[in-house]
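quick one, two chains, predict together pls
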Amino acid sequence: DGGITQSPKYLFRKEGQNVTLSCEQNLNHDAMYWYRQDPGQGLRLIYYSQIVNDFQKGDIAEGYSVSREKKESFPLTVTSAQKNPTAFYLCASSPYSNQPQHFGDGTRLSIL
Amino acid sequence: DAKTTQPPSMDCAEGRAANLPCNHSTISGNEYVYWYRQIHSQGPQYIIHGLKNNETNEMASLIITEDRKSSTLILPHATLRDTAVYYCIVEDSGGGADGLTFGKGTHLIIQP
C-alpha cells in the first residue's frame, strides 16, 4: 500500500544536539510538507517543497533545516538553534495540483 | 488571522448524525472548504472538500451555504471511532500547495 512513513515514532534529544526526522513517501507526490503541533493546538507549517531540489520556509522555520534530494524523501533537521523543540512533528505530501494532503503518523520529539 | 471559526468541542450519541459547523465569513471566490480530522496521536486524515456545491463521499457530507460564509460537516451515523478533532480549513484552489493553515478545530466526542 502507498503511504507516508515517518521514523522514529519517538525521539529524544539532548540539549545542544541536532536531530534528523525521517519522512518517506511512495505515493509519487511532488509536494511534501513538515508541520509542528504543540499540545492542544493546531498544526503549524515549518517547511514545504513543491519539487525536488527546491523548498520554502513556512511560518516557523527558524531553528529547522530540510533537504529534498529525492522525490520520495524530505528529512527535517531540528538544530540546536531551536530553543523549544519538544513537539509532535508531522510530515505530509500531496500531488502538485489541487489535491488533499496525506499525512504520516508523526514523530514525537522530547528533550532529555 | 484565522480564516475559520469552529466550536471547541461537541458531543454526539453513537448512531446519531454528527453535525459540525464552521464559519468562514471572509472566504473568497477561489477558496475551497476542506475538512480533516485527527485521532489522538495520529496524523490528520482528509475527509472531504468543496467549493460551493454540497459534496458527499463514503465518509461524510459537506453542506455549504449559498453565500459560502459557513458550512457543516455531517457524519451520518457516528461511531465511537469518529471521536477526534475535526479541522475546517479554507484554502485556495491549489489545495494548500504552500501549506495548510490549521486552527484548533472541534473536539468531537461520540458517547456510547
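The mean pLDDT of chain A is 92.
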